[in-house]
């Protein structure tokens, strides 16, 4: 930093010496305020450009080092391996005895299945083409029939009773 200030000072001194050497004393004496103002403006502009370039170079350098540290690994999956999200060929049949004993309707079971898949009330309502309040009503009735206070308890109880896969 001190080196740059020294260089700027030397350049300014050389400019002034050049003006005196070429015998522009009249211009210097007559317009000294304007010349010194222009000289200061040029120095500050040059310093600002230099500082801006220096700051932006650092950011690019940091981004490049971040890009260089990213490690990419390939995971080879054999073609014979079944995908984890593929449904099993045997469809799940809910335990109808427990369903009838508890009095859970087909629609309530459908909503309970969607809850188990992680859907929100709004997503369930959109998927089943009903209002969100209808979904809330079915949820509340299902929770009461299963004796659950929360969604997670209802899903757990549904799995215990064989209503959910």
Short description:
With 165 residues, the protein is mainly alpha-helical. The chain is 70% helix and 0% strand. It starts with a helix and ends in a 5-residue tail after the last helix.
Walkthrough of the structure:
The chain has 165 residues and is mainly alpha-helical. Helices cover 70% and strands 0% of the residues. It is built from eight helices and no strands. It has helices at 2-21, 25-30, 32-69, 96-102, 106-116, 121-128, 132-146, 151-160. Helix 5 (106-116) packs across helix 7, helix 6 (121-128) packs across helix 7 and helix 7 packs across helix 8 (151-160). The relative contact order is 0.07. The mean pLDDT is 79.
Report the biggest beta sheet as strand number plus sense, adding barrel if it closes.
none
Choose one word for the global shape: rod-shaped
Strand content: under 5%
Helix tally?
A: 8
N-to-C SSE string, H for helix and E for strand: HHHHHHHH
Secondary structural class: mainly alpha
End-to-end span in angstroms? 70 Å
Mean pLDDT: 79
Give structural attributes.
single chain; 165 residues; mainly alpha; 70% helix; rod-shaped
Secondary structure elements and pairings:
Elements: H1 2-21, H2 25-30, H3 32-69, H4 96-102, H5 106-116, H6 121-128, H7 132-146, H8 151-160
Helix pairs in contact: 5-7, 5-8, 6-7, 7-8
């Amino acid at each position: 930093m001190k080196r740059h200030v020294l260089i700027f000072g030397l350049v300014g001194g050389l400019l002034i010496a050049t003006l005196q050497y070429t015998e522009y004393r009249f211009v210097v004496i007559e317009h000294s305020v304007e010349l010194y103002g222009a000289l200061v403006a040029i120095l500050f502009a040059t310093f600002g450009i230099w500082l801006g370039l220096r700051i932006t170079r650092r950011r690019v350098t940091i981004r490049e080092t971040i890009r260089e540290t990213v490690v990419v690994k390939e995971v080879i999956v054999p073609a014979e391996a079944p995908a984890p999200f593929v449904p099993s060929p045997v469809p799940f049949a809910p335990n109808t005895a427990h369903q009838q004993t508890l009095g859970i309707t087909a629609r309530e079971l459908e909503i309970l299945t969607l809850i188990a898949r992680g859907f929100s009330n709004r997503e369930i309502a959109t998927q089943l083409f009903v209002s969100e309040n209808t979904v809330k009503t079915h949820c509340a009735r299902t929770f009461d029939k299963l004796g659950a206070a929360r969604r997670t308890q209802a899903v757990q109880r549904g799995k215990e009773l064989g209503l959910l896969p």
